[in-house]
Amino acid sequence: MTEPANARAAIEADCEPEAAALIIALATEYLAASRVRTEAVSSVYDQAALAKRFDEEMPRQGRPLAEVAERIRRDVLPDSNWLYHPRAMGHQVAAPLPAAIWSESLIAALNQSVAVFEMSPVGTTIERRVIRWMCDLVGFGPQSAGTMTTGGTEATFTAFLAARAVAMPGAWENGVGVNPPVLVCSEHAHYAVTRPAGELGLGARNVVSVGSDGFRMSPRALRDALVRVKAEKRVVLAVSATAGSTPTGTFDNLAAIADVCDEFGVWLHVDAAHGGSALLSSTHRPKLKGIERARSIAWDPHKMMLLPLQAGVLLMRDAADLDRAYAQNAPYLFHEREEPDQGTRSFLCSRRADALKVWVALQRYGADGIGAIYDHLCATTAALHDAVRRHANFDAPHAPDCNILCFRWVGDRTRSDAALDEINREARERYNRSGAGWVTTTVLSGRRVLRVTVTNPRTTREDVEAVLNGLAETCERLID
Fold it and tell me: How do beta strands 440-444 and 404-409 pair?
């Protein structure tokens, strides 16, 4: 058994710069190696092979940190997804800004719980300042407020809790009863929007799905849906619009949707988890026209602001709405203050000071600098769309609104839709296993498509064209 004195000695040794350098070196080695386009983007091993690598008993005795670092270098880094590789174009997870990466170690070292001011005086202050900056970007007034979240899922859940407090003031104590309100959203809404129906006791059957036009929620279909709900004498919890949908990156017409919501007097929530960062771009900001009319907004800086996971925010036009979301009695923790503690506005109690990395990123790169990166990612995706349109064997069902594009290999167009579905599905898997690049897939209008998300500032026009050509070659090999 390790003696306590030995463990304490190890802790003190690991506080030294030399110890930290062992781990930081791993990160910088990865960032350097991932510039090389011939390196593999992802692992070629399946789950069973990777599980075997780590099939071991729990260590009872400690080892030198240098040995642990070497194990990470050998067994962890090579088969992780290299999001900083220029041809990693898979899910909506960023290649994070380096200054924010390094701030993570400071967040962990300070280990502040931003639940109450006395537990994190500077962290709380910075979170409030970051939230104020974001509310100002949206166009909310001084009565607005917000909170850091783990992401869009928590932000949307909290927004709907606040909406429930307005629609059903006694729901916290009494539940939603036998006639719960309905939640209205687009047919392309993220599951983070529909999941709260189950979490809040509304029931999934009380989600009203609104049809789309060009992958955007149809304001006319929304109005028709609200007319039906009103005729049924049902209460609407909220209407959720989308700014940067997950399947296609499409932005709903927020101003038109806000007009409909105002007509019926219903709560408008905007899921801007992906697209909220367009507010930093003078080029793309117009896509968010009308967002200032929302009552609540979910926005994930860990997406298009390129922050490390996790960093989400919920913004409320009226702070009173946010304060009604949660009701708790914890006199050992929460005290009357001029400014409410952030923990009273959050699903979490133990809350990381994630606002610090947002603050550091803005200090280092500036809002305009991050906006310019947003523009680059969107322009690179537009270049891919141009390449798809020029390629005889591909079709694109939509033009990109941001950094997401779906496209489909169609070959000579003689094969059935079902056959093309299988070719596109298998081509994606084979191409990703090759390590040459990394893309995802989804289903649009009932058909399997390939999907790219450009979230790496290193990715260029040449990279997206290389990935497209690699996918084409993979498809051709499948039909030989």
Answer: unpaired
Using the predicted structure, report yes or no on whether residue 96 has a pLDDT greater than 50.
Answer: yes
- Number of neighbouring beta carbons within 10 Å of residue 282: 12
- Distance between CA atoms of 374 and 305, rounded to whole angstroms? 7
pTM of the model: 0.94
3-state secondary structure 127-176: HHHHHHHHHHHHCCCCCCEEEEECCHHHHHHHHHHHHHHHHCCCHHHHCC
Average pLDDT, the chain: 94
pLDDT average, residue stretch 179-200: 92
Amino acid 173: pLDDT: 87
Residue 480 has pLDDT above 80, yes or no: no
What are the backbone dihedrals phi and psi of residue 475, each rounded to the nearest 5 degrees, phi first?
A: -65, -40
Q: What is the DSSP string of 63-98?
A: --HHHHHHHHHHHTSTTS--TTSTTB--SS-----H
Mean pLDDT value of segment 310-321: 96
What structural domains does the chain harbor? 1-25+44-79 (no CATH), 113-352 (3.40.640.10), 367-479 (3.90.1150.170)
**Alpha carbon 146 to chain centroid distance?**
17
pLDDT-above-70 percentage for the chain: 97
Contact predicate 82/88, CB 8 Å: yes
CB 153 within 8 A of CB 142: no
Could you give the 3-state DSSP secondary structure of residue 29?
A: helix
Q: With contact defined as beta carbons under 8 Å apart, do 34 and 85 qualify?
A: yes
181, 236 in Cβ contact below 8 A?
A: yes
pLDDT-derived band of residue 324, with 50, 70 and 90 as boundaries? Answer: confident
- Let me know: does 146 contact 315? Beta carbons within 8 Å: yes
Please tell me what DSSP assigns to residue 307.
Answer: P
Residues in contact with 337: Cβ distance below 8 Å, sequence separation at least 6, in sequence order: 117
